[in-house]
Amino acid sequence: MMMLEKQLGHIDYINQLIDDLDAEIEERMTPFSEDLELIDTIPGIGMQTVQQILAEIGTDMSRYPSAKHLCSWAGLTPGHDESAGKKRSTKVRKGNLKLRNALT
């Protein structure tokens, strides 16, 4: 019985840590509420994914000259391998692993 009580106490402690982290994330995302709401309108993307996208990319889109540059930076586009007129498919580039995992 004592082990069960310790395990339940540990679960309560972990749940409190999760609640504290959720509150801190919410607080840090407050200045970006308009951006969050805009990204949240994309079908199939939940608020956690929206927060992760914003955390990884930021709000300054001038860093990326085009959407293609952003996708390439995120590692969402395959590499380009062409020689002597022959095109070969390549694997997706490394890019930003956290962002790529959030989007795929």
From TrEMBL:
Residues annotated as domain Transposase IS116/IS110/IS902 C-terminal: 37-103
Give one GO biological process term. DNA transposition
Q: Name one Pfam family in it.
A: Transposase_20
Q: Name one GO molecular function term.
A: DNA binding
**Stored InterPro entries:** Transpos_IS110 (IPR047650), Transposase_20 (IPR003346)
Entry protein name = IS110 family transposase
